[in-house]
Amino acid sequence: MGRQHVEQIAKQLEVLYPGDAKTLCALHFETPFQLLVATVLSAQTTDAAVNAATHVLFARYPTPQELAIADIANVAEIVYSTGFYRTKANRIVELAGQIVDRYQGEVPEQLEELTTLPGVGRKTANVVRSVCFGLPGLPVDTHVARLSNRLGLSSSQNAEVIEQELCGLLPESRWGSFSLQLILHGRRICRARTPSCFRCELAPSCDSAPASVR
DNA sequence: ATCCCGAGGG
DNA sequence: CCCTCTGGAT
Fold first, then answer.
1. Distance spanning both ends of chain A, measured CA to CA
2. Domain stops at, among A114, A132, A150
3. Which of A12, A66, A98, A197 sits at 20 to 30 Å (Cα–Cα) from A170?
4. A66 with A13, same domain?
5. Using one digit for the tens of pLDDT, what is the confidence trace for A142-195?
6. Known catalytic residue: A123?
7. Mind listing the pLDDT tens digit for each residue in A14-28?
8. Which residues bind [4Fe-4S] cluster per the record (predicted)?
9. Within this chain, do residues A75 and A125 fall inside the same structural domain, yes or no?
10. Which nucleotides of C are covered by protein (CB under 7 A)?
11. CB < 7 Å to strand B — which of 16-75 in chain A?
């Protein structure tokens, strides 16, 4: 691996998917609270499904104050198509309540505070930090984990270990955008089952690409 | 390790 | 028809 290996990859990703974390984020939102909710809903579903649900959800419950007192069954109906709908409906209503009660309606910025909220794990907390607040945070989801392994940036299967290793390889200013760039590349080219190495721009610097395309 | 859970892609 | 999707809590 080494520094040069990462820099080569990071540089190519910047060309392929230009922009900062906020620009690259595919989730629709107006406020930090809305991004937090959208990210909780994004578990095991597509961003398109989340955006369709939040379009309706935020029209009816735009603020934590309003979502906190929402009818759970109605919320479940709205988020139904994102999957895990009972769990998600309960989580986001409870989440809204805690934001109101514990944080005066304002989403906290510290990772340790964010991860105490229901439905908010390390990945979600880092999304909010990097996309919304412009703070250092490198979300590791299934795409980031898979591409990090394939590219030879980490050999760990543990998301938190991968996060630490990637953070050590990149400047803080690139943490958020790098994560989103890996996600976009994972969706377009480096898919889980059928990676298109033959048309991958990163193949020359990828440990896992077949020799024929490097 | 298992559960939550629908929808679209390959 | 199987797999995967911007996971988190128990």
1. 16
2. A132
3. A197
4. no
5. 999 999 999 999 999 999 999 999 999 999 999 999 999 999 999 999 999 889
6. yes
7. 999 999 999 999 999
8. 190, 197, 200, 206
9. yes
10. 3-9
11. 44-46, 49
